[in-house]
Design goal:
The chain has 160 residues and is mainly beta. The chain is built from 1 helix and 9 strands; from the N terminus they run βββββββββα. The termini are far apart.
Length: 160
């Protein structure tokens, strides 16, 4: 799913409803490296609350993101949980391309873009295969996780 039409919602007496939606997530670049959501999708729990003609949308996103570890370049599998809120006023019109806008235009939510942005916001600054990843040797590029005792002989300084 890439878009969700708010007109398909049917509110109960409390003025609230929810939907669980699989949302397509395109591969993306983070820190100069390529990452993908597992199975190309994320799980979105979309809760809508209506007060008068306005609707408050709450997004709760869960995804598994895979790609290279930013220290050792091995495989990293990162769980991402993110949360976002979007407000829709009654009479919202199609988005003006030049205007800074949210994720809703003419009662249609761009869930693909919203979820992608929430995943990006939910990622930590470093995507690692494990918290204690030792990385690569700065001299020869050896994986220090595979060889924790890896060392190089200190080069002797030339005599003066």
């Amino acid at each position: 799913m890439r878009r969700f039409d708010l007109r398909s919602l049917h509110f109960d007496q409390s003025g609230e409803t929810w939907r669980r939606l699989p949302v397509e997530v395109e591969p993306f670049v983070f820190g100069g490296l390529d990452y993908v959501a597992r199975d190309g999708a994320a799980d979105l729990l979309l809760t809508a609350s209506r007060i008068g003609g306005s609707v408050t949308l709450v997004a709760e996103v869960e995804a598994q993101v895979t790609g290279p570890c930013q220290r050792c370049l091995g495989d990293a599998d990162i769980a991402v949980c993110a949360h976002g809120v979007e407000y829709v006023q009654s009479g919202d019109s199609p988005l003006d391309e030049d205007a800074e806008a949210g994720y809703v235009a003419a009662n249609v939510v761009d869930v693909e873009r919203w979820v992608r942005d929430l995943i990006a916001e939910g990622l930590s600054g470093k995507l690692l295969c494990s918290e204690d990843c030792a990385g690569l040797c700065s001299t020869c590029g050896a994986d220090l996780n595979a060889d924790p005792d890896h060392r190089h002989e200190a080069a002797e300084a030339p005599a003066v």
